[in-house]
Protein backbone atom coordinates (compact mmCIF):
# COMPACT_ATOMS: atom_id res chain seq x y z
CA UNK A 1 0.00 0.00 0.00
CA UNK A 2 2.81 2.34 0.93
CA UNK A 3 4.62 1.47 -2.29
CA UNK A 4 1.50 2.25 -4.34
CA UNK A 5 1.17 5.59 -2.61
CA UNK A 6 4.79 6.43 -3.41
CA UNK A 7 4.28 5.49 -7.07
CA UNK A 8 1.13 7.66 -7.29
CA UNK A 9 2.84 10.57 -5.53
CA UNK A 10 5.84 10.32 -7.83
CA UNK A 11 3.61 10.28 -10.90
CA UNK A 12 1.67 13.26 -9.61
CA UNK A 13 4.83 15.28 -9.00
CA UNK A 14 6.16 14.34 -12.42
CA UNK A 15 2.91 15.41 -14.13
CA UNK A 16 2.94 18.70 -12.25
CA UNK A 17 6.55 19.27 -13.29
CA UNK A 18 5.67 18.62 -16.94
CA UNK A 19 2.69 21.00 -16.76
CA UNK A 20 4.89 23.69 -15.25
CA UNK A 21 7.51 23.20 -17.95
CA UNK A 22 4.86 23.38 -20.69
CA UNK A 23 3.46 26.54 -19.14
CA UNK A 24 6.89 28.19 -19.11
CA UNK A 25 7.48 27.15 -22.71
CA UNK A 26 4.12 28.55 -23.83
CA UNK A 27 4.80 31.80 -22.00
CA UNK A 28 8.20 32.12 -23.70
CA UNK A 29 6.65 31.36 -27.09
CA UNK A 30 4.05 34.06 -26.56
CA UNK A 31 6.70 36.54 -25.45
CA UNK A 32 8.87 35.81 -28.52
CA UNK A 33 5.90 36.05 -30.87
CA UNK A 34 4.82 39.47 -29.60
CA UNK A 35 8.39 40.75 -29.40
CA UNK A 36 9.11 39.87 -33.05
CA UNK A 37 5.83 41.25 -34.44
CA UNK A 38 6.14 44.50 -36.37
CA UNK A 39 2.48 45.37 -35.82
CA UNK A 40 0.04 44.60 -32.97
CA UNK A 41 -1.31 41.07 -33.18
CA UNK A 42 -4.96 40.21 -32.64
CA UNK A 43 -5.94 37.43 -30.27
CA UNK A 44 -6.94 35.36 -33.30
CA UNK A 45 -3.55 35.85 -34.97
CA UNK A 46 -1.75 34.85 -31.77
CA UNK A 47 -3.93 31.75 -31.31
CA UNK A 48 -3.12 30.61 -34.86
CA UNK A 49 0.59 30.55 -34.02
CA UNK A 50 0.37 29.02 -30.55
CA UNK A 51 -0.25 25.34 -29.61
CA UNK A 52 -3.87 24.26 -29.49
CA UNK A 53 -5.65 23.91 -26.17
CA UNK A 54 -3.70 26.56 -24.27
CA UNK A 55 -5.43 29.17 -22.10
CA UNK A 56 -4.36 32.15 -24.19
CA UNK A 57 -6.21 34.81 -22.18
CA UNK A 58 -4.54 33.64 -18.99
CA UNK A 59 -1.11 33.61 -20.64
CA UNK A 60 -1.58 37.13 -22.04
CA UNK A 61 -2.70 38.39 -18.64
CA UNK A 62 0.27 36.75 -16.92
CA UNK A 63 2.72 38.18 -19.45
CA UNK A 64 1.16 41.63 -19.12
CA UNK A 65 1.51 41.47 -15.34
CA UNK A 66 5.12 40.29 -15.62
CA UNK A 67 6.02 43.35 -17.72
CA UNK A 68 4.03 45.87 -15.66
CA UNK A 69 6.31 48.57 -14.29
CA UNK A 70 9.18 47.70 -16.62
CA UNK A 71 10.70 49.79 -19.41
CA UNK A 72 8.71 47.82 -21.98
CA UNK A 73 5.08 46.98 -21.26
CA UNK A 74 2.56 44.71 -22.94
CA UNK A 75 -0.32 46.89 -24.08
CA UNK A 76 -3.75 45.82 -25.26
CA UNK A 77 -5.51 47.93 -27.89
CA UNK A 78 -9.00 46.79 -28.77
CA UNK A 79 -8.43 43.08 -29.46
CA UNK A 80 -4.73 43.41 -30.34
CA UNK A 81 -1.53 43.12 -28.28
CA UNK A 82 1.91 44.67 -28.66
CA UNK A 83 4.99 45.54 -26.64
CA UNK A 84 5.39 49.28 -26.22
CA UNK A 85 7.75 51.62 -24.37
CA UNK A 86 6.39 52.64 -20.97
CA UNK A 87 4.65 56.01 -21.19
CA UNK A 88 6.79 57.60 -18.47
CA UNK A 89 9.99 56.85 -20.43
CA UNK A 90 8.96 58.54 -23.67
CA UNK A 91 11.27 61.48 -22.88
CA UNK A 92 14.32 59.28 -23.50
CA UNK A 93 13.60 59.10 -27.21
CA UNK A 94 12.52 62.68 -27.86
CA UNK A 95 15.93 63.90 -28.93
CA UNK A 96 16.34 60.95 -31.30
CA UNK A 97 12.96 61.24 -33.00
CA UNK A 98 12.76 63.21 -36.22
CA UNK A 99 9.34 64.75 -36.55
CA UNK A 100 8.52 64.38 -40.23
CA UNK A 101 5.09 65.99 -40.16
CA UNK A 102 3.10 67.97 -37.63
CA UNK A 103 -0.66 67.84 -37.92
CA UNK A 104 -2.24 71.17 -38.70
CA UNK A 105 -4.95 72.52 -36.44
CA UNK A 106 -7.46 71.72 -39.18
CA UNK A 107 -6.28 68.09 -39.26
CA UNK A 108 -6.44 67.77 -35.47
CA UNK A 109 -9.98 69.13 -35.37
CA UNK A 110 -11.04 66.95 -38.30
CA UNK A 111 -9.58 63.87 -36.63
CA UNK A 112 -11.43 64.72 -33.41
CA UNK A 113 -14.72 65.17 -35.28
CA UNK A 114 -14.31 61.81 -37.00
CA UNK A 115 -13.34 60.07 -33.75
CA UNK A 116 -16.31 61.39 -31.78
CA UNK A 117 -18.97 61.44 -34.51
CA UNK A 118 -18.08 58.38 -36.64
CA UNK A 119 -19.41 57.24 -38.95
CA UNK A 120 -19.43 60.74 -40.43
CA UNK A 121 -19.41 62.19 -43.95
CA UNK A 122 -17.31 65.05 -45.26
CA UNK A 123 -20.33 67.35 -45.38
CA UNK A 124 -21.12 66.52 -41.75
CA UNK A 125 -17.52 67.27 -40.75
CA UNK A 126 -17.79 70.68 -42.39
CA UNK A 127 -21.13 71.34 -40.70
CA UNK A 128 -19.77 70.45 -37.26
CA UNK A 129 -16.59 72.50 -37.66
CA UNK A 130 -18.39 75.36 -39.38
CA UNK A 131 -15.68 75.64 -42.02
CA UNK A 132 -14.99 74.17 -45.46
CA UNK A 133 -12.68 71.14 -45.46
CA UNK A 134 -9.78 70.96 -47.90
CA UNK A 135 -9.07 67.63 -49.57
CA UNK A 136 -5.48 67.71 -48.32
CA UNK A 137 -6.62 67.52 -44.68
CA UNK A 138 -8.37 64.19 -45.15
CA UNK A 139 -5.52 62.93 -47.33
CA UNK A 140 -3.06 63.46 -44.47
CA UNK A 141 -5.23 61.52 -42.02
CA UNK A 142 -5.82 58.69 -44.49
CA UNK A 143 -2.09 58.49 -45.29
CA UNK A 144 -1.25 58.34 -41.58
CA UNK A 145 -3.50 55.30 -41.28
CA UNK A 146 -5.63 56.89 -38.54
CA UNK A 147 -8.76 57.35 -40.68
CA UNK A 148 -10.43 54.93 -43.08
CA UNK A 149 -13.34 54.86 -45.50
CA UNK A 150 -16.18 52.98 -43.78
CA UNK A 151 -19.03 52.84 -46.25
CA UNK A 152 -21.60 55.01 -48.00
CA UNK A 153 -24.39 56.90 -46.27
CA UNK A 154 -27.80 55.77 -47.46
CA UNK A 155 -28.78 59.26 -48.64
CA UNK A 156 -28.89 61.00 -52.05
CA UNK A 157 -25.43 61.03 -53.58
CA UNK A 158 -24.34 58.12 -51.33
CA UNK A 159 -21.50 60.10 -49.69
CA UNK A 160 -18.57 58.18 -48.22
CA UNK A 161 -18.45 57.83 -44.42
CA UNK A 162 -15.23 58.07 -42.42
CA UNK A 163 -14.10 56.38 -39.22
CA UNK A 164 -10.95 55.77 -37.19
CA UNK A 165 -8.66 52.72 -37.36
CA UNK A 166 -6.91 50.41 -34.86
CA UNK A 167 -3.72 52.35 -35.67
CA UNK A 168 -5.43 55.48 -34.30
CA UNK A 169 -6.15 53.69 -31.02
CA UNK A 170 -2.63 52.28 -30.85
CA UNK A 171 -0.94 55.63 -31.53
CA UNK A 172 -2.90 57.45 -28.85
CA UNK A 173 -2.70 54.61 -26.31
CA UNK A 174 -6.41 53.83 -26.28
CA UNK A 175 -7.80 50.35 -25.66
CA UNK A 176 -11.12 51.17 -27.32
CA UNK A 177 -12.95 54.15 -28.79
CA UNK A 178 -14.84 54.42 -25.49
CA UNK A 179 -11.58 55.50 -23.78
CA UNK A 180 -11.56 58.85 -25.60
CA UNK A 181 -11.46 61.86 -23.24
CA UNK A 182 -14.60 63.94 -22.86
CA UNK A 183 -15.28 66.70 -25.35
CA UNK A 184 -15.26 69.19 -22.49
CA UNK A 185 -11.64 68.26 -21.74
CA UNK A 186 -10.63 68.79 -25.37
CA UNK A 187 -12.41 72.12 -25.55
CA UNK A 188 -10.69 73.19 -22.31
CA UNK A 189 -7.36 72.33 -23.95
CA UNK A 190 -8.26 74.60 -26.88
CA UNK A 191 -8.44 71.78 -29.43
CA UNK A 192 -12.08 72.08 -30.34
CA UNK A 193 -12.86 75.78 -30.23
CA UNK A 194 -14.73 75.61 -33.53
CA UNK A 195 -16.77 72.54 -32.67
CA UNK A 196 -20.21 72.78 -31.17
CA UNK A 197 -21.13 70.78 -28.08
CA UNK A 198 -21.93 67.18 -28.93
CA UNK A 199 -25.05 65.33 -27.99
CA UNK A 200 -24.64 63.79 -24.53
CA UNK A 201 -25.85 60.47 -25.93
CA UNK A 202 -23.38 60.49 -28.81
CA UNK A 203 -21.93 56.99 -29.26
CA UNK A 204 -19.15 56.77 -31.88
CA UNK A 205 -18.54 53.34 -33.40
CA UNK A 206 -15.31 52.15 -34.99
CA UNK A 207 -16.19 48.47 -35.51
CA UNK A 208 -16.20 46.83 -38.92
CA UNK A 209 -19.98 46.35 -38.92
CA UNK A 210 -21.79 49.00 -40.92
CA UNK A 211 -24.41 51.21 -39.30
CA UNK A 212 -28.07 50.94 -40.27
CA UNK A 213 -27.78 53.94 -42.58
CA UNK A 214 -24.54 52.77 -44.25
CA UNK A 215 -24.03 50.69 -47.39
CA UNK A 216 -20.82 48.86 -48.40
CA UNK A 217 -18.24 50.89 -50.30
CA UNK A 218 -18.13 48.70 -53.42
CA UNK A 219 -15.00 50.48 -54.54
CA UNK A 220 -14.61 49.35 -58.14
CA UNK A 221 -12.96 51.41 -60.87
CA UNK A 222 -16.16 53.22 -61.76
CA UNK A 223 -16.72 54.21 -58.13
CA UNK A 224 -13.18 55.57 -57.84
CA UNK A 225 -13.71 57.74 -60.92
CA UNK A 226 -17.05 58.94 -59.57
CA UNK A 227 -15.48 59.76 -56.20
CA UNK A 228 -12.78 61.80 -57.93
CA UNK A 229 -15.40 63.72 -59.91
CA UNK A 230 -17.51 64.32 -56.80
CA UNK A 231 -14.48 65.53 -54.88
CA UNK A 232 -13.65 68.00 -57.66
CA UNK A 233 -17.26 69.19 -57.73
CA UNK A 234 -17.25 69.59 -53.95
CA UNK A 235 -14.09 71.68 -54.20
CA UNK A 236 -15.60 73.96 -56.85
CA UNK A 237 -18.88 74.26 -54.94
CA UNK A 238 -17.04 75.17 -51.75
CA UNK A 239 -15.10 77.89 -53.58
CA UNK A 240 -18.26 79.33 -55.18
CA UNK A 241 -20.09 79.33 -51.86
CA UNK A 242 -17.43 81.60 -50.28
CA UNK A 243 -17.40 79.97 -46.81
CA UNK A 244 -16.42 82.06 -43.77
CA UNK A 245 -12.83 80.77 -43.94
CA UNK A 246 -10.93 77.78 -45.27
CA UNK A 247 -8.43 75.29 -43.86
CA UNK A 248 -4.81 76.21 -44.24
Characterise this structure.
By secondary structure, this protein is α+β, with helices and mostly antiparallel strands. It has 2 domains: 2-93, Winged helix-like DNA-binding domain superfamily/Winged helix DNA-binding domain (Arc Repressor Mutant, subunit A); 105-241, Winged helix-like DNA-binding domain superfamily/Winged helix DNA-binding domain (Arc Repressor Mutant, subunit A, Orthogonal Bundle). Helices cover 48% and strands 12% of the residues. The protein contains 9 helices and 7 strands; from the N terminus they run αβααββαβααββααβα. A 4-stranded antiparallel sheet has the order 4-6-5-7. Strands 1-3-2 form a 3-stranded antiparallel sheet. α1 (2-36) crosses α3 (56-67) and α4 packs across α6 (135-144). It is globular and about 65 Å long. Mean pLDDT is 77; it is low at 4-8, 194-200 and 220-246.
Would you spell out the secondary-structure blueprint of this structure?
Layout: H1 2-36, E1 41-42, H2 43-49, H3 56-67, E2 72-77, E3 80-85, H4 105-117, E4 120-121, H5 122-129, H6 135-144, E5 147-153, E6 160-164, H7 166-171, H8 183-188, E7 214-215, H9 221-241
Antiparallel strand pairs: 1-3, 2-3, 4-6, 5-6, 5-7
Keywords:
2 domains; Arc Repressor Mutant, subunit A; globular; alpha+beta; disordered C terminus; four-stranded antiparallel beta sheet
Summarize, please:
By secondary structure, the protein is of the alpha+beta class. The chain contains 9 helices and 7 strands.
Amino acid sequence: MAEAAQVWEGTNVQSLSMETEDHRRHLRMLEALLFAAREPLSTKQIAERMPEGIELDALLSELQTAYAGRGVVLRRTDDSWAFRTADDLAFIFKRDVVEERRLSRAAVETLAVIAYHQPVTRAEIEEIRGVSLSRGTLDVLLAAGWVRLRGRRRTPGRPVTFGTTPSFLDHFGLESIGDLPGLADLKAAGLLEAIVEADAELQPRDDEELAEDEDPLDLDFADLEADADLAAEDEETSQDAEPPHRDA
